[in-house]
Automatic annotation (TrEMBL):
This is Glycerol kinase. Sn-glycerol 3-phosphate binds at residues 18, 88-89, 140, 255. Glycerol binds at residues 88-89, 140, 255-256. It catalyses: glycerol + ATP = sn-glycerol 3-phosphate + ADP + H(+). It is an enzyme of class 2 (transferase). Residues 11-262 form the Carbohydrate kinase FGGY N-terminal domain. Inhibited by fructose 1,6-bisphosphate (FBP). ADP binds at residues 18, 22, 277, 321, 422, 426. Pathway: Polyol metabolism; glycerol degradation via glycerol kinase pathway; sn-glycerol 3-phosphate from glycerol: step 1/1. InterPro entries: ATPase_NBD, Carb_kinase_FGGY, Carb_kinase_FGGY_CS, FGGY_C, FGGY_N, Glycerol_kin.
Length: 514
């Protein structure tokens, strides 16, 4: 409920994430007024395949928005705008006449387009995709996922060519439904989400017809590319029409870009890292499109209205928090995620064990789909407590590899790292991170930076906040960790980590199923 400290008006933000959808209502100081959240089903039809039911997601989004509004005890008149942030790359195609998805959405972690990407590499060449889109050819991105659907859902390509099919990432799906669906829903995406499709040219910020043709995706199904902070339309659709009709839908940002925005990394060189299921480190590179030679992604940071585009470098790590989940759910090593810290603290070090969780191959900076997970350095001395250490260290060393790549690509030293996400409640991990990076690690008061970023962008679009300077003033430090590890230990441990990484590679042959 609202109180004297959180007097309206407010901005609501929807975070349509990989495991759940949530809605958070924020006040003018960027403080949380209410939260509602709902998980959706993870569908694994085959090893390496991951799907979501887009209808279930839309139902959940409507419920959490209604839930957050109700918990805040506010009405439509108190809300000035709604912002959207979302899991990126996850791809859905639907019939624009019925609003029905033609297939489950293919999730960013899904590896079914590996062989298609290899074929594109052979026929078109890796370099061309990197040069034009900023991305390496990998099953992670949306374009190949759309091609897979067009090739594998019977009759779909013909329907697409007849103009009956729409493509979207989750921002597009949610906005289209929020703004009316079959009754005139807006078919739009923002530049940050578009930059993850492998179909947008980073230099023109438009769909690249040649790239789209080489991947096999017709331009006619793609949404209009808009900025990250502007009014796309008004809420009219679904159950929310009655509750929130007329409220402007005023921002869209991929979740990692939203976290960059919510952490107020508005200056060139400022960097944040989000520790959830996976980990994503993003550096603001200002107006520079930095081509990565060290295995990072070149991507869009954000674009506010008609202001110039801000670019970014990103290091994406597929498995970090999900390794802790796996240790809890599949291995039974701990019964809660938080227990991993207690177990790890019961020993001094990793006992010589290194755990490289290459469960979906290795993302940045290696981009090796043939890698699989390895625990290296095992002896009879190693206990489950040492493994708990190795699990946490895996997140820290993977971050170090990304940080090194960022220094190589940008030429800027890492001065400090702003962190957020569920894993940052683990103090041992945060200390280890500072130790291996040899840099301070800082966490803000509002840990929900993803939703906050979407709220900030929506608030700027409708004049609720006046400038990014005003937003910066809201950022307050909650905790800081500084490095204590000596250089000799750090170098020795890093060398061992890199040796373990080497051992994951080349496990999968071309004819292997998973
Ligand atoms: N105390 C902890 N120590 C280590 N990992 C944790 C801890 N608490 C949560 N996690 C991990 O953090 C992840 C959840 O973080 P969250 O930011 O909610 O993720 P997402 O937004 O990707 O769903 C889970 O994978 C969980 O295993
Ligand atoms: O929903 P999250 O937090 O797991 O983030 C997923 C990323 O956007 C994938 O690129």
């Amino acid at each position: 409920m609202t109180d004297a400290h959180t007097a309206g008006p407010f901005i609501a933000a929807i975070d349509q994430g990989t495991t759940s959808s949530r809605c958070i209502v924020f006040d003018r100081d960027g403080r949380i007024v209410s939260v509602d959240q709902k998980e959706h089903e993870q569908i694994f039809p085959k090893p390496g395949w991951v799907e979501h039911n887009a209808n279930e997601i839309w139902t959940n989004v409507q419920e959490v928005v209604a839930g957050a509004i109700q918990k805040a005890g506010i009405t439509r008149d108190d809300i000035k705008a709604i912002g959207i942030t979302n899991q990126r790359e996850t791809t859905v195609l639907w019939d624009k006449n019925t609003g029905e998805p033609v297939h489950n959405a293919l999730v960013w972690q899904d590896t079914r387009t590996d062989s298609l990407c290899k074929e594109l590499g052979r026929n078109v060449g890796q370099d061309r995709f990197r040069r034009e889109t900023g991305l390496p050819l990998a099953s992670y991105f949306s374009g190949p996922k759309a091609r897979w659907l067009l090739d594998n859902v019977e009759g779909l390509r013909e329907r697409a060519e007849a103009g009956d099919i729409l493509f979207g990432t989750m921002d597009t799906w949610v906005i289209w439904n929020l703004t009316g669906g079959v009754n005139g829903g807006k078919h739009v995406t923002d530049v940050t989400n578009a930059s993850r499709t492998m179909l947008m040219n980073l230099h023109t910020m438009e769909w690249d017809d040649k790239i789209a043709e080489s991947i096999g995706v017709p331009l006619g199904i793609l949404p209009e590319i808009r900025s990250s902070a502007e009014v796309y339309g008004e809420v009219t659709g679904g159950k929310l029409g009655d509750l929130l009709g007329g409220i402007p839908v005023a921002s869209a940002l991929g979740d990692q870009q939203a976290a960059l925005f919510g952490q107020t990394c508005f200056s060139e060189g400022e960097t944040k890292s989000t520790y959830g299921t996976g980990t994503f480190m993003v550096m603001n590179t200002g107006d520079k499109i930095i081509n990565s030679y060290a295995g990072l992604l070149t991507t869009v940071g954000y674009k506010i209205g008609d202001q110039p585009t801000v670019f970014a470098l990103e290091g994406s790590i597929a498995v970090t928090g999900s390794l802790v989940q796996w240790m809890r759910d599949q291995m039974g090593l701990v019964s809660t995620a938080a227990e991993i810290e207690t177990l790890a603290l019961s020993v001094e070090d990793n006992g010589g064990a290194y755990f490289v969780p290459a469960f979906s191959g290795l993302f940045a900076p290696h981009w090796r789909s043939d890698a699989r997970g390895v625990i290296a350095g095992l002896t009879r001395y190693v206990t489950k407590a040492h493994l708990a250490r190795a699990v946490l260290e895996a997140t820290a060393w993977q971050t170090r590899e990304i940080a090194d790549a960022m220094v190589k690509d940008s030429g800027d030293e890492l001065v400090a790292l702003k962190v957020d996400g569920g894993m940052t409640s683990n103090n041992l991990l945060m200390q280890t991170l500072s130790d291996v990076l040899d840099a301070p690690v800082v966490r803000p008061m509002v840990a929900e930076t993803t939703c906050l970023g979407a709220a900030y962008a929506a608030g700027l679009a409708v004049g609720f906040w006046s400038s990014t300077d005003e937003l910066r003033a809201n950022w307050r430090r909650a905790a800081e960790w500084t490095p204590h590890m000596d250089a000799e230990t750090r170098d020795r441990e890093y060398k061992n980590w890199l040796k373990a990484v080497e051992r994951t590679m080349g496990w999968i042959d071309d004819d292997d199923e998973h």
